[in-house]
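Try this one yourself first.
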């Protein structure tokens, strides 16, 4: 049973933004299992709504995945406690504010609010995933992990370049993460998308563990002009969000 569940999870993991549809033959090849086994897995996942059949005998994620994701967002304490803090930032600056967590070495965007001055950022849709090395939220989430865990993530998925400013060397990333821990926040200076910058800070739970990161994103020209203001604002907001989750700074 555990093996079957693990394989079912592996099937779901194959579907990405870049590869939203797959055939049984391709699923079998990627997982290294017989085609008959892949067909049985896909059939079972379709019956419970986690996959759906598309034209041409191909498959895509089913709407049950969306329903479950909405239930998770509605029930998670992290989102409900942090959302008012994020909204206050959007009301103040009119920019895009993100909340993200780390799962299996990838940044997962838990919430995203856009203000009146916000530019559209397609890569950070709620539920979307990105490698963590280029974004402000990703750097924050990596910075508070043990070094060996960060190295394992980098060894597994590399440091792909998104722009000419993206960090692509381990030594440079390691130095950057040390700096993030020391100052308590991280920048993305056109490292994920050209002409887009952000600053991010850690969100802690009641025990002090960093469980998420919050960021303000803005066009590069505006961000550089107001960088200090944005930085102080995200630090204050992240502290407020952490306190909402029960964190007491310095044990007081």
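Now uncover the answer:
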């Amino acid at each position: 049973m555990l093996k079957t569940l693990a394989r079912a999870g592996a099937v779901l993991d194959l579907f990405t933004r870049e590869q939203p549809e797959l055939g049984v033959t391709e699923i079998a090849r990627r997982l290294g299992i017989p085609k008959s086994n892949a067909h049985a897995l896909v059939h079972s996942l379709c019956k419970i709504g986690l996959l759906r059949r598309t034209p041409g005998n191909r498959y895509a994620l089913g709407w049950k995945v969306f329903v479950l994701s909405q239930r998770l967002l509605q029930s998670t304490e992290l989102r409900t406690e942090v959302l008012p803090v994020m909204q206050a930032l959007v009301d103040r600056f009119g920019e895009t504010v993100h909340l993200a967590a780390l799962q299996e070495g990838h940044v997962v965007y838990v919430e995203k609010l856009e203000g009146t001055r916000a530019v559209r950022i397609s890569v950070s849709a709620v539920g979307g995933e990105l490698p963590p090395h280029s974004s402000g939220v990703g750097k924050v989430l990596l910075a508070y992990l043990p070094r060996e865990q960060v190295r394992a993530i980098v060894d597994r998925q590399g440091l792909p370049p998104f722009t000419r400013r993206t960090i692509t060397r381990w030594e440079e990333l390691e130095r950057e993460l040390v700096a993030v821990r020391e100052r308590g926040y991280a920048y993305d200076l056109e490292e994920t998308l050209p002409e887009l910058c952000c600053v991010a800070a850690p969100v802690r739970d009641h025990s002090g563990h960093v469980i998420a990161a919050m960021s303000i994103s803005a066009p590069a020209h505006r961000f550089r002009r107001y960088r200090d203001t944005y930085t102080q604002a995200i630090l204050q907001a992240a502290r407020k969000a952490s306190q909402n989750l029960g964190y007491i700074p310095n044990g007081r």
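Discussion: The two ends are 48 Å apart (CA to CA). The chain is about 50% helix and 20% strand.
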